[in-house]
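Hey,
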Amino acid sequence: MSTTMTMKPVLAIATVALLAVSCSDDSSPHPDPDPMPTGEPTADELVDFTGLALPDDVQDLEIERSRNESGGLVYTATFSTSAKGADLFCELGDNFSSYDLSSPPDGEGWLAEEFPEETVDGYTECTGANLERDAVNRRAFISYPDEDSADVLLEAEHLNTR
């Protein structure tokens, strides 16, 4: 028996073993996250991620960027606007439905832990997914400190699932 003939089965077994190792699951339930953008988050970055246009009269915009438990990118933003601007923010957002609330949400499912307590006209919650970006869920909580203004808390997160 020649050496060449005995090596072929060994090479075939080694190749199959190597393929099995390279195709195996990495035991992580989530894919590797997208790289974290660098620099301070911008309004354009927030709009691109959420698919939502900010009101023309937005004021005091603050944006934070982080990761959720699955490694997905998260944007949290707060801003002030007119009451009409807040209404349009929800109404004009694709796949973004609004609901009137008589009290703040219980916090379940929200990244924020505290919500404004004072409002003159109840609260509004808007929810929906960004259909332009895979697995990005969005929600906004709106309170009305007076009849003409609104404070908005916006949370958007990439669910980072397989």
